[in-house]
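Complex 358.
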Amino acid sequence: MNRIFNLFIILIIITVIACESEDVEVAVYDATPYLFSFPENFGDPELPKDNNLTKEGVKLGKMLFFEKALSKDGTQSCASCHVQNDGFSDKNQFSKGVDGLFGKRQAMPIFNMAWHKSGFFWDGRAATLREQSLKPIQDPLEMHETLENVVSKLSTSKTYTDQFIRAFGTSEVSSTKVSLALEQFMMTIVSFDSKYDQYLAGRVTLSESEERGRSLFFTEYNQFFPDLSGADCAHCHSGPNFENGEFMNNGLDKDSDFTDTGREKVTNLVADRGTFLIPSLRNIANTAPYMHDGRFKTLEEVVEHYNSGVKMSSTVSPLILPTISKGLGLSAQDKIDLVNFLKTLSDQKFLTNPEYAQ
Ligand code: HEC
Ligand code: HEC
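Predicted structure with heme C bound:
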């Protein structure tokens, strides 16, 4: 009798466990909104209205961002070239794709994407992040995979089909949903807690050198009164994200030396030849090398470019033109101070935030 009773109990326990584990297994659609927080001084973000951020959608996007199966030979994910501690950029001048071929531009950092007003990539050729996100997968110099293969690889994984259910209410994988999930995750990568932000909020003070650098950064160039002249950076690197959403030529090359025509490739306008998106300077100390072709290894080299290396060309920005003949005239100390100010734009919380890590 006792034995039978024991068996009965065991059976009940097994049934309970089986039911419980089944409960866990069944994925259900969950549209819990993802709380997107940002500072007031940033202004309204442009979040996609037809792709609301949900916790499960963001999670799927993050899984995909780190997923090597998005590449032809399973060796590369988005995160291979967009490394968190490098501000989601990478340290190489040109990133190497799965076929060992090098791309033609420096990887761009990824943060504060909801304030990007002029499209994505150095030439703004992708209007939206969802459009952008499918390009590296198919690019022969990057992940070199077909969207059909990506869909079929993900479809064989229960982990993924379950997550597609949680995020979109269906286990059916499609490249559109892949792009929507990646868009959601990338929108959530934000950075707004640098030393400079803390200084603006009155929580810390800048060192003497950083403060001099700040002043130089925001002071206009004055060719008539050198004592009043600054480094004039904020004409172009303006606003809370140190970018104004415009495409400009900051004098890297003479007309005869252009190897990448930049924005002209998108608009077919000669006036756009050699112009590139003005990048944000947030986390700039972490995103070397610099410029669309990664030609400068250090911030010191960048500052020297603006100080004495700006080249004349037919499309050079009128905002930088007046500095060409004599240069900015920065002293050795000025240059150190400017670099020290740029370093205050790094945000350790963002660079190590576990929410963005695999
Ligand atoms: C082989 C390296 C490599 C891989 C892999 C890669 N990227 Fe990139 N990424 C780059 C480069 C280089 C650029 C700049 C390209 C250009 O402007 O033409 C870039 C630009 C971007 C941008 C534009 C940012 C801006 O400010 O406009 C985003 C967003 C982005 N990548 C997301 C992704 C996603 C999502 C994936 C995975 C699906 C991915 N990348 C895979 C190298 C890579
Ligand atoms: C006329 C507009 C303009 C002015 C003025 C200007 N910049 Fe730039 N800056 C740009 C553009 C455009 C780029 C991207 C150019 C490219 O890659 O071809 C850029 C790129 C940079 C980069 C590299 C960013 C990256 O992610 O690779 C740094 C750093 C930088 N600028 C700092 C400064 C500093 C410091 C000053 C002031 C001394 C300054 N800029 C003045 C337009 C400007």
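Residues 7-20 have pLDDT under 50 and may be disordered.
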